[in-house]
Amino acid sequence: MSASWKQLSLQILLLLVSCRHINTKTPGPTAPPLIPIDQLPTDVRSVALKGESHTEKVELLNPVNLTLECTWTGNQDKLANITGLWRKDGEEVKNSNQTVPMENDQYNLKRVFSIVNEEDLGSYTCEFGSKAKIDFVLAAPQIGDVRDKPIVSYLGDFVVITCKMEETKPEPSTWYWYKANGTDKEQIIAAEEPLRYEIKNEERNTKLVVSSLVEADAGLYFCGAVYAISTSMSHVELKVISFYEPLKPFVAIVIAVIVLVAIILLYEKSQSKKNITAAENGTTDQTNTLTQGETNGHGESSSMRQRKV
Amino acid sequence: MSPAPADELDHKPLDGGWGWMVVVAAHISIGFAYSTPKVLSIFYKEIQDNLGASSSEIAWISSIMLAAMYAGGPVSGMLVTRFGSRPIVMAGGLMCGVSMVTATFGNSMVYLYLCIGIIGGCGLSLNLNTSLTIIGKYFLVKRPLANGLVMAGSPVFTVFLAPLNQYLLNRYGWRGSFLIFGGLMLNCCVAGALMRPVIVRCKTSNCAPQKNVEDKPNESNTKLKESCMKSAMSFFDWTFFKDRGFVIYLVGSILFIFGAYAPILFLSAYAIDQGVDEFSAANLLTIMALVDMFVRPATGLIASSKWVRPRIQYFFSLAMVFTGTVHLLCPMIIIKSYSYTFLVTYTVFFGIGFGMVFALIFECLMDLMGKERFPSAFGLVTMIECIPLLLGPPVAALLVDIFGDYKYLFFMCGTVILTGGLFLFVMNIYNYHMLEKEKPGKDGAQNQMNVEGQEHVSALEVEMKDTPEAEMERSEPEAKYANAVQREPQPESAETPH
C-alpha cells in the first residue's frame, strides 16, 4: 500500500507542477528562461475595444511578465455571459477558454504571459465569442529605414553598408552583421578578415565596410539589432559590377557627340563653299547682297532674301 | 528678314532661319547650366554613405558649383567678346564633361569640391553667358520669345534629368552615374557647334568687305576699333554703374535672387510639415518644373508682342510683384484640412511667377544694355548676384530655425521679392521720365552718347540715321517697338518716329 501511496503522491506532485506550468507557459517549444519567471519585471497593456477588432503594437526590449487586458463594451445583444478565448499566432492557448460575465456594462479578459525569448514574441489575440477581438503584436523594435534598392559598387572599390535604428526607438545593445549563404546566414566577424571587413558600431547605427570588392561579395547582407529579448533584422542587397559597364554607354555618348559635331561643322563648311562658288559666279550686286548681314550659313538667308519679306 | 541696304553698317539680326537652331543650342546649354546643380543632389545620399560626409558638407558641392557659375561671369563675358560664342561653349562643354569624369574617381569631399564645384562650375559659367549673348546677336524683334524658349531649358532639363539620374544611380551606383553624366554634358559641345558665329559687314568704303565682329578689330574704322576693343577689354566695366537703368535693374534682380531659391529648397519640407506625405511633397517640385516649362516660352511670346515689348521693364517688375504676392499669401491663406490641394495651387502660381521672372530677367538686361555691352554687363550682374544667391537660402533656414515655423520664410521671401518688384516698377517710371527729359537735349549729339558697345560703328553714318538698338533702349517705349517693326518692312529707310 505504501508503494501506491508513493506513486499517488508522485503523481499529485507531478500534476501540481504541470498545472503550475500551464498557467504561465505559452504553447509551443520554449527554451528555459535564464531568469526565474517569478523575478521577471512586469508590465501591463490594456485595450478597450470600441468596434469589432483592433490591433495593438507592443514593443518589448527585455524579458517580461506581460499582462494583457482586454475590455469590450459589448454589442446590441448585451448577453449576460460570453465566451472569452486567448490565441497565440492563431492557435488557441490551452485552458484559456472561459466564460466572461458582463460587469459594469463591459466584458473583461485578462491574462499574464511570460515573454522571455524570441519564440514568445508574436501575435496574441483575445477573443470575445466570435464577435470581437483585439490583437497584441509583440515584437522587438524593428528597423524602420529599410533600403529597398540594391547598393551598386565596383570591383576593387569599397562599399559602406549602413543600418540605422530610429531616434524614436530604443537603442540596441549591439549590432551584428550576416551575409546570406544560400538560405543560411553567416555571421561576419571583422576580426577574422580585418583587411576586407570593418564594422563600426555606434549606438544607433552600424556601418559595414567591405573593401577590395570581388564578385563573390555580391548578395544579401543582414544587419541585426540585438535586444535582450530578440534580434531585429534588416537586409540590404549589394551588387558588384565591373567598370566596363558604365564605360560602354559613356563611350557611346562620346562617339555620338563627336559625330554630331563633325556633321554640323561639315554641313556648315559645305554650305559656305556652295555660297562662295555662287558668289564667284554671280554678279557684283549679288555679291553685295550676299555679303551683308549674313551668317556663315548663307543658305537660309539668301533664300529668305529672295522671298523678300 | 529682308536684306540690308548696301551701306548698312551693322549686322541686322536674322530673327529666324538658323537663329532657331541657335535657340535649340542655347536651350541645351542653359538647360545644363541651371539644372546640373539641382539634379546632382540625387546622388548626394549615396555619396554621403560611401564617403562618410555630413549633409552640410555634401550640400557645398552644389553651392560651390552655383557660385563658380555666377562668379565666372566677367571672365566668360570677356572671352565671349574676344572669341565669340562657339569656341567658348565648346570649351565649356568639354570642361564640364572632364569635371564629371574626373569626379568619378574621387574619394574625398575636397576632391569633389574641386572637380565638380570649381571646374564644373567654371565650365557652366562659360556656357551661361555665351548662350544668352548669341541670342542677342541672332534675334531682335523676336528676342523675348527666343529668350523665353532658351530659359525654358532649365525646367525642361530638370524634369528629364532628375528621373534619368535616379535610374543611373540604381543601375550604376554613383561613380558610374558621374561618368555617364559627364558624357551627357559633352552635348554642350554639340550645342556649341550649332552656334555659328555671326558675320557683320561694315561700310565698304572704310572697311574690308567682310568683317567678323568677334575678330579683334584691326580694320581701318577707328571708331569701331575703339568701341570693340573697349568692350573686349572691359573685364570689369565700372562705367556700367553710371547707367541709371543698369543700377535699377541690378538692385531689382539682387532682391529677387535673394528671395527666389529658398521657397524651392524648403517646399518639400514645408509640405511635410503641413501633413503631406513624402511622395506627394516631392511631386510638388515636379509640378512646379512642369508649369515653369510652359510659362517661360509663353511669357517670351507675350513679351514679344507689340503692346508689351516697349514696356518690357514694367512687365518684368509686375512679374516680380506677382511672385512676391504669391509667397506672402501662401502661409496666410493655407487651410490645414485641404493642405495638399492648396499647396498644389500655390506651387502652380509660384511656378508661373518664377517662370515669368526668369524668362524676362536676361531679356530685360539685353534690352537695357544692347547686344554689344551685354556679355560684360551680364558678367558683372551674375558676379554680384553670387552674394544674394549664396546668402538667401541660409538666411531663410536661419529664420525657420529661430521661429520654428516655415511661414516666416515665406513672409521674408515674399516681402523681399515684392519690394524688388515695386522698386523696379517705380524706378523705371522715374528712369523713363528722366530719359524723356534728357532726350531733346541729346538729339543732335546722340551719337556721341552712344559710346562703346553699341552696334553702330561710325559717327558719320549714325548721324544720318538713328541707331536701332540705342534708339530702342533710350527713347520712349512706344518708339522702341515701332522702330523695331519698321525695320522689317522698310530696311532702307531705317527711320524712327520721334
From TrEMBL, chain A:
<dbReference type="InterPro" id="IPR051275">
    <property type="entry name" value="Cell_adhesion_signaling"/>
</dbReference>
<keyword id="KW-0812">Transmembrane</keyword>
<feature type="region of interest" description="Disordered">
    <location>
        <begin position="278"/>
        <end position="309"/>
    </location>
</feature>
<dbReference type="InterPro" id="IPR013783">
    <property type="entry name" value="Ig-like_fold"/>
</dbReference>
<feature type="transmembrane region" description="Helical">
    <location>
        <begin position="249"/>
        <end position="267"/>
    </location>
</feature>
<protein>
    <recommendedName>
        <fullName>Ig-like domain-containing protein</fullName>
    </recommendedName>
</protein>
<feature type="signal peptide">
    <location>
        <begin position="1"/>
        <end position="24"/>
    </location>
</feature>
<dbReference type="InterPro" id="IPR003599">
    <property type="entry name" value="Ig_sub"/>
</dbReference>
<keyword id="KW-0472">Membrane</keyword>
<feature type="domain" description="Ig-like">
    <location>
        <begin position="141"/>
        <end position="234"/>
    </location>
</feature>
<dbReference type="InterPro" id="IPR036179">
    <property type="entry name" value="Ig-like_dom_sf"/>
</dbReference>
<keyword id="KW-1133">Transmembrane helix</keyword>
<dbReference type="Pfam" id="PF00047">
    <property type="entry name" value="ig"/>
</dbReference>
<dbReference type="InterPro" id="IPR013151">
    <property type="entry name" value="Immunoglobulin_dom"/>
</dbReference>
<feature type="domain" description="Ig-like">
    <location>
        <begin position="32"/>
        <end position="126"/>
    </location>
</feature>
<keyword id="KW-0732">Signal</keyword>
<keyword id="KW-0325">Glycoprotein</keyword>
<dbReference type="InterPro" id="IPR007110">
    <property type="entry name" value="Ig-like_dom"/>
</dbReference>
<dbReference type="Pfam" id="PF13927">
    <property type="entry name" value="Ig_3"/>
</dbReference>
<dbReference type="GO" id="GO:0016020">
    <property type="term" value="C:membrane"/>
</dbReference>
<keyword id="KW-0393">Immunoglobulin domain</keyword>
<keyword id="KW-1015">Disulfide bond</keyword>
From TrEMBL, chain B:
<feature type="domain" description="Major facilitator superfamily (MFS) profile">
    <location>
        <begin position="21"/>
        <end position="432"/>
    </location>
</feature>
<dbReference type="GO" id="GO:0015293">
    <property type="term" value="F:symporter activity"/>
</dbReference>
<feature type="transmembrane region" description="Helical">
    <location>
        <begin position="18"/>
        <end position="35"/>
    </location>
</feature>
<keyword id="KW-1133">Transmembrane helix</keyword>
<keyword id="KW-0812">Transmembrane</keyword>
<comment type="similarity">
    <text>Belongs to the major facilitator superfamily. Monocarboxylate porter (TC 2.A.1.13) family.</text>
</comment>
<feature type="transmembrane region" description="Helical">
    <location>
        <begin position="176"/>
        <end position="195"/>
    </location>
</feature>
<keyword id="KW-0769">Symport</keyword>
<feature type="transmembrane region" description="Helical">
    <location>
        <begin position="87"/>
        <end position="105"/>
    </location>
</feature>
<feature type="transmembrane region" description="Helical">
    <location>
        <begin position="144"/>
        <end position="164"/>
    </location>
</feature>
<dbReference type="InterPro" id="IPR020846">
    <property type="entry name" value="MFS_dom"/>
</dbReference>
<dbReference type="GO" id="GO:0008028">
    <property type="term" value="F:monocarboxylic acid transmembrane transporter activity"/>
</dbReference>
<keyword id="KW-1003">Cell membrane</keyword>
<feature type="compositionally biased region" description="Basic and acidic residues">
    <location>
        <begin position="466"/>
        <end position="479"/>
    </location>
</feature>
<dbReference type="GO" id="GO:0016323">
    <property type="term" value="C:basolateral plasma membrane"/>
</dbReference>
<feature type="transmembrane region" description="Helical">
    <location>
        <begin position="315"/>
        <end position="334"/>
    </location>
</feature>
<feature type="transmembrane region" description="Helical">
    <location>
        <begin position="340"/>
        <end position="362"/>
    </location>
</feature>
<dbReference type="Pfam" id="PF07690">
    <property type="entry name" value="MFS_1"/>
</dbReference>
<protein>
    <recommendedName>
        <fullName>Major facilitator superfamily (MFS) profile domain-containing protein</fullName>
    </recommendedName>
</protein>
<feature type="transmembrane region" description="Helical">
    <location>
        <begin position="246"/>
        <end position="272"/>
    </location>
</feature>
<keyword id="KW-0472">Membrane</keyword>
<dbReference type="InterPro" id="IPR011701">
    <property type="entry name" value="MFS"/>
</dbReference>
